[in-house]
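Quarterly update from the structural biology core.
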Amino acid sequence: MQMTFYFSDTVVLLFDFWNVHSPAGMVLSVLVILLLSVLYEALKMGKAVLLQRALLALPRSLSQEGLSEPQEEEDSRDSRDSRDSSPAQGRWFWFHVAQTLFHVLQVVLGYMVMLAVMSYNGWIFLGAIAGSTLGYFMVYPLLGRG
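Predicted structure, tokenized:
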């Protein structure tokens, strides 16, 4: 069986119920894939912005090694130092949880777009490429503002 791209208005995408069999259905499906690709790029950049903000939220005196020190060493410090680092560690933890959720959503969206492209329908492929391009173009300037 040879797998090649084809241009047609009939395709089954991702699930059996997403069965496209008309030009109007294909246009709508391409728009959905385009929007999924834009959202994928937005999530990718959102993760980068979140990481940038997480690193800026940490006090300058607190390094990454300070966050991963064993509990014994922290107990040997005076109580003032451990109180100062605790809120920063809590903020870092919640930034990490948010980044993990962004990552899971990004992976799910990425696989959905990839599986849609694997239908080998040329229109769907072009929609995914256009959405990725548009998403990157629209969201990239936000990284510099963070």
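Confidence is low (pLDDT under 50) at residues 76-84.
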